Amino acid sequence: MITITKLKPWGSSLGIVVPNEIIKAEHLKEGEEIIIEIKKKHSLKKVFGTLKNWKVNSQQVKDELRKEWE
Q1: Per-residue pLDDT of the chain (70 residues; tens, 9 = 90+)
Q2: H/E stretch holding 10
Q3: In angstroms, how far is the first alpha carbon of the chain from the final one?
Q4: What are the sequence ranges of the domains in the chain?
Q5: From the centroid of its chain, how far is CA 2?
Q6: How far is residue 37's CA from residue 24's CA, in Å, rounded to a whole number?
Q7: Contacts of 69 (CB under 8 A, 6+ apart)
């Protein structure tokens, strides 16, 4: 299950809160070990800003897709 949450101060560290709907859906109990995959959320503005110099010939893309469909 995937969710987005914010890091919050917890003493001299940062912590996260696992939303209640995930706790219920996964039947989590206090003290259980879980696996958390960390990925920084990037804004769409930042992502699309990295592609501003990317040039694509739309006709060439369509032609390549048609070749794969045949």
Answers
A1: 888 889 999 999 999 999 999 999 999 999 999 999 988 887 776 666 666 677 778 888 888 888 878 7
A2: strand 8-10
A3: 37
A4: 8-69
A5: 8
A6: 19
A7: none
